[in-house]
Amino acid sequence: MEAVKNTAKAIADLVEEGYRIVIAHGNGPQVGMINNAFSEYAKKDPKFPFMPLSMCVAMSQAYIGYDLQNALREELLDRGIKKSVTSLITQVIVDEKDPAFLRPTKPIGPFMTEEEAEKARANGMVVVEDAGRGYRRVVASPKPQDIVEIETVKTLMDAGEIVIACGGGGIPVVKEGNHLRGVGAVIDKDFAASLMAEKIDADIFVILTAVEKVAIRFGKPDQEWLSELTVETAEKYIAQKEFAEGSMLPKVQAAISFASSRPGRKALITSLEKAAEGLSGKTGTWIRS
Question: Any long-range contacts for 231-235 (C-beta under 8 Å, 24+ apart)?
Fold first, then answer.
């Protein structure tokens, strides 16, 4: 609740600046905790049905969206702005043959100590060290191919609403004729948001994270913060493994995807608190083609 209050203030600043906004959000800690809770309950009640990860994504999408839309609506009203905010349960199509299903990389759930990580591995989970912050469970993270409800997003946006969509990367589904089947994965929110930004023809794609700028040699004595990156330079740094997998890497890759999707498009990576300053050119890392 505290997080969404802070988020609402930052987004309301942008609304006051005149930006038309569509929002995506993560769900890494929440979807893991939902999944763990159902798994623990199932151990006590053998009749309790298995809860697919896709359903857990849907639950996290709904409750985070509920908190975020109410906090943003309240913040806007406090500023005298009457604007509707709508959360949309969003399905995102993936390829069942995506090689990501063979190599889980997406961190979900809470951080663990090394001892907790060893116990989790013994129970069949895939657990890795997450960018120097501790250990986390990882699951498959296939690339998003299409957004099922994208026309609804556009309709709501054209009606003047602020739309919250593709929460947690969207519910991962595969097409089987007219049927959409949920699959056991969590789509990276940055890739899903980048695809959504392309499909709604956004001018700017903003990724808000824990740091003000992207850095190379992160955490080392010669760390260097970056203000501007061309797509070509960003790809060179990726090849040199400058960005942590599961952390900054997907953010830079998503920014590259959007910036290179059409001439004139650009992406900004900065912290939540610096969103308005970043868009005014005072801080953040800009990625352009």
Answer: 231/256, 231/259, 231/260, 231/287, 231/288, 231/289, 234/287
